[in-house]
Amino acid sequence: MTEQTHSAPTAHQLLEIRNIRQTFPRGDGNELLVLDDVSLTLRPGEIVGLLGRSGSGKSTLLRLIAGLAAPTSGAVRYLGTPVDGPAEGIAMVFQSFALFPWLTVYENVTLGLEALELPRDEIRRRSLAAIDLIGLDGFESAYPRELSGGMRQRVGFARALVVHPNILLMDEPFSALDVLTAETLRTDFLDLWSDGKMPIQGVVLVTHNIEEAVQMCDRILVFSTNPGRIVTSIDVTIPRPRNRQDASFAALVERIYVEMTAKPGRSAHRFERTLGAGIDTILSHVSSNLIAGLIETVAAAPFLGKADLPEIASELSLEIDELFPVSETLQMMRLADIEGGDLRLTQEGMTFADSAVDERKRLFARLLLQHVPLAAHIKRVLDERTTHSAPKSRFLDELEDHMSPQAAEETLRAIISWARYAEVFAYDDTTTSFSLENPT
Amino acid sequence: MAQNTTAWSTGSRGAPSRFDVIAILLVVGLLAFLGAASRGVMAPITTLDVSPVTLDPSALPHYAARTTLRMFAALGLSLLFTFTYATWAAKSRRAEKILVPILDILQSVPILGFISLTIVFFMSLAPGRVLGAEFAAVFVIFTSQAWNMAFSFYQSLRTVPKELTEATRSFRLSGWARFWRLDVPFAMPPLIWNMMMSMSGGWFFVVASEAFSVGSTTITLPGIGSYIALAIEQKNIAAVGYAIVAMFTVILLYDQLFFRPLVAWADRFRFEQEITAPPPSSWVFKVLTRSAFVDGWRRRLRRGWANTAAIVKAAPTPLRFETRAHSHRIDIVAVVAVAALVAISVWKTAAFLAPELSWADIGSTFAQGAVTMIRVFVLIALASILWVPIGVYVGLRPGVARVVQPIAQFMAAFPTNLLFPVAVMCIVTWKLNANVWLSPLMILGTQWYILFNVIAGASAIPGEMRAVASNLRVRGWLWWRRIALPAVFPYYVTGALTASGGSWNASIAAEVANWGEEHVEATGLGAYITDATTAGDFHRIVLGVVTMSLYVLLINRLLWRPLYYYAERKFRLA
């Protein structure tokens, strides 16, 4: 990198991403598509949020921007120059903080400046300034293990800011913190941002927290999963500082929930994960406790069978990463419907809520065999065989024709757990085989 | 790799305590006793009728079977020792204070020096003479296998989660039932790991244990080890080659037929509830678990086993371990007993050594120990310079690590005694300095521990930390200094201390080497012990072994242990 890249952006956009595709090689020689045709532009003075669940490739995208990996096709341009390796002027903050435990706070912060081979005085001046800015005064000689999570992430921020980056990349920086600490760090960061005290010109934030995205971003890009594509771009025009209690704030959160849970068909590729009809549907492993818990909560007061997704998320303190898979499982089993950001229990769902354990199991077994083709398929194979047993690999091979090995494993794990709950067939992990009989 | 057990991962820490001193004295006393006891039984052994070993390759399968049998017998004994000694140490706070230091010291005693002392003793115990020699050989292998297994088990028992112990208590399980239901399963995965390490380490001693000479007596038991010894004596390179092939086959067989299934089976005992890496698999285990015949026998065995628990439970005094309640009277008895043992040890040792040895002897022994010490440190330093960068390189690349790991594991099991002839030939041919060129043999077999551990350390660096380094564009020397070296440091210390201990032990074999009539010798404590053994001079053997134990112990306590704590405190990734 040369000196000119450090100058202020003029004619070029801060960051331009054009038609990025990212695939990873799979064991069977095929490729797993993680990002498909993703384009975005980051303008000076803008915070852009990448919102999606795990598996949407948003963290992969962040690493492509940072030059930590190269895209399979497409281009990342920073200030008009293609990114072909870790770029000077792009710094990153990590979910796990990623501090070096053997370095003090001060040494962790100076690491990037030492790599720039700046003079010692300069390193000292800039590090102390960053430590001061981020509120770490007095902690310079502490080791990371002595700090709380919040203080650790402050070190993460100071370490990123000290190299005076133009772009700050944040990979779910608050998700490893408790709710209160996360909120404090977010508002501190936004205050510094609004006051222009930080040397950064633009921010890309990866998150799976809808409220966080609305609170922090000027623009939110909603990602689909498997593969990751940008489904919608939402401009957030609510003036700062934003208040979560405002009607406009809540309305936007609601709107994003609706976007993210919209029925298939209306939008081309949003919902492959849930409502496919064949045995090739990718299932997420959702425990029967979570299913029962969600049904009970929605059936009880104050929801009485119909709940707003944002409300239920905050009521049960579930992240969308947890809430969406359960609600989609309910939808698939026809225990509930999702419409316009609301979750409404069906007749079966209400019956389930009112039943005792054995009745619930019977109902669940019926719905499982009726609405989950893979479960019905496995049951049929077991019925037909004289031994009433079949190895797991038989179904795994079948599934891998349609999905990645990880997805196939996850899908079978879901089926096994539901079938065990419903007592429709058994699975023995030692012999890795399905059977009709219950273990002795 | 990370499961390498060290004496002080739990338990006592810091400077040597009075229990260490007591333990040293007891072990020294035992050595003196064995030395004294064996002096009287020298005579009959000279008449021992030994079965001749031939270099005919067709005899090798039989030899290989005998050797394997010995190794497994020793492994069984080690397991028995582990289950009793380590359990006692873990369950009784009083016994722990003395048993753990004793184990630590036994680990530092150079087994090869020990052989001559124990062999004669064991042969005098056995009614049948070949059987006596077999006992001795098995015992030597046992001493190379047992200590780390016992430490691993002790450490596991100490870390059994309190809730689980309380659960077994509240269900009123007897001590016997608790041991088999909780303690053993919990300790199983690291114990199996250590059994594998022990088997690898045992090969080095097989060569020494099957063909040995004490004074004018030579005993040869049929086995791969004696085959190799004969091949070296007769300068038969082809036979050495056959032996290597046979050994490789045996290692492969017991790995596939015994350890892989065992590891696959023990996976169920892993305490972590979440599933991380893919579980280990073994085709043998698959076959066994799916066979109805085996299943039937398993059920029968399980029923029989369950009955034993019932018997023990029904017994009037269920097997119980000492309660934690303090009784001063028992304390006093214990102290008096230990004190008496220590006094006897000191007296025995003094009485044994004093008439024959002068202060000058002791001084020269220590001087030779210093020579060997310098050699070990230089070798560890050289091996570190070589293997740390390679280990980091390999550890950061999982694909490369998958290829390198099994090769390194085999190299570690490979008994380096087989390479000694090559060294002797080179030294004799080119008239090299034996003091320099015999030295590498000491570390050939032990350097792999450094490589293993560094690979493990480098592969444990979290992906996000490596991403930070690239994001901040930290490279070159700054990257090594700030990131790679600190990250692997705790692992490196574990590897280096294992390598150091092993090298001391190997010095007994490596400072003197033979190829036919060619004889090459370096100055050092190892050569001192070997020469004393050849001469059948038990006083000097005891002096040499005790001196070496002291060196190893002091280096461990004054260098490696503090370094280990420092590394654990400062560098361990949370």
Briefly summarize what is shown.
The complex is a heterodimer of chains A (440) and B (574). Chain A has 440 residues and is of the alpha/beta class. Helix content of chain A is 40%, strand content 19%.
Using brief descriptors, characterize the structure shown.
heterodimer; A: 440 residues; alpha/beta; Rossmann fold; Arc Repressor Mutant, subunit A; 2 domains; four-stranded antiparallel β-sheet; 16 strands; globular; B: 574 residues; mainly alpha; MetI-like fold; two-stranded antiparallel sheet; two-stranded antiparallel ribbon; 4 strands; 3% strand
Question: At CATH's second level, what is the architecture of the largest domain in chain B?
Answer: Orthogonal Bundle
CATH superfamily of the largest domain in chain A: P-loop containing nucleotide triphosphate hydrolases
Strand content of chain B: under 5%
Query: Strand-and-helix sequence of chain B, N→C?
Result: HHHHHHHHEEHHHHHHHHHHHHHEEHH
For this structure, the quaternary state is heterodimer
Number of strands of chain B: 4
Structural class of chain A: alpha/beta
**CATH class value of the largest domain in chain B:** Mainly Alpha
Low-confidence stretches of chain B: 1-14, 40-50, 314-320
**Number of distinct helices of chain A:** 15
Annotation, overall tally of beta strands of chain A = 16
* Sheet with most strands of chain A: 6 strands, mixed
Task: Write down the domain tally of chain A.
Answer: 2
CATH architecture of the largest domain in chain A: 3-Layer(aba) Sandwich
Write the layout of secondary structure elements.
The complex is a heterodimer of chains A (440) and B (574).
Chain A: E1 15-25, E2 31-42, E3 46-51, H1 58-65, E4 73-78, E5 81-82, E6 90-93, H2 105-115, H3 120-133, H4 149-161, E7 167-171, H5 179-194, E8 202-207, H6 210-216, E9 219-223, E10 230-235, H7 247-260, H8 288-299, E11 306-308, H9 309-315, H10 320-332, E12 336-339, E13 342-345, H11 347-354, H12 357-371, H13 373-384, E14 389-391, H14 392-400, H15 405-422, E15 426-428, E16 433-435
Parallel strand pairs in A: 3-8, 3-9, 6-7, 7-8
Antiparallel strand pairs in A: 1-2, 1-4, 4-5, 9-10, 11-13, 12-13, 14-16, 15-16
Helix pairs in contact in A: 2-3, 2-4, 3-4, 6-7, 8-10, 8-11, 11-12, 12-13, 12-15, 14-15
Chain B: H1 18-39, H2 42-45, H3 60-91, H4 93-108, H5 111-125, H6 129-158, H7 162-170, H8 175-210, E1 211-214, E2 217-220, H9 224-233, H10 237-266, H11 283-290, H12 292-314, H13 328-353, H14 359-395, H15 398-413, H16 420-430, H17 434-437, H18 440-444, H19 447-459, H20 463-471, H21 476-510, E3 512-515, E4 518-521, H22 525-535, H23 538-570
Antiparallel strand pairs in B: 1-2, 3-4
